[in-house]
Write a structure and sequence with these properties.
Elements (H helix, E strand, L loop, with lengths): L2 H76 L1
Keywords: Lipid-binding
Organism: Lates calcarifer (Barramundi)
Pfam family, one: FCH
């Protein structure tokens, strides 16, 4: 007659362990979601900075290309 109460106790123990594991998994999932959101935000800001940097480099290159071209023409005219 004693085994049935023991089974009930074991099932309650399993339920408790399952509940604890589920809670830990949910916490881990929440932390992972926050980390991914931070990575997404970082990547988005980095991409914007790199785009701005690339555009500035392109403007600089165009300015120097014009200067070299103009300098080449003035050198040819004065020679």
């Amino acid at each position: 007659m004693q085994p049935p109460p023991r089974k009930v106790k074991e099932s309650q123990q399993v339920k408790l362990v399952f509940s604890e594991q589920l809670s830990k998994l949910q916490t881990k999932q929440h932390q992972d979601t926050e980390l991914l959101e931070e990575i997404r935000s970082f990547s988005k800001h980095r991409a914007a900075i790199e785009k701005e940097y690339g555009q500035a480099l392109q403007r600089l290159a165009v300015q120097y290309q014009k200067r070299d071209w103009q300098r080449g023409n003035t050198d040819a005219i004065t020679s």
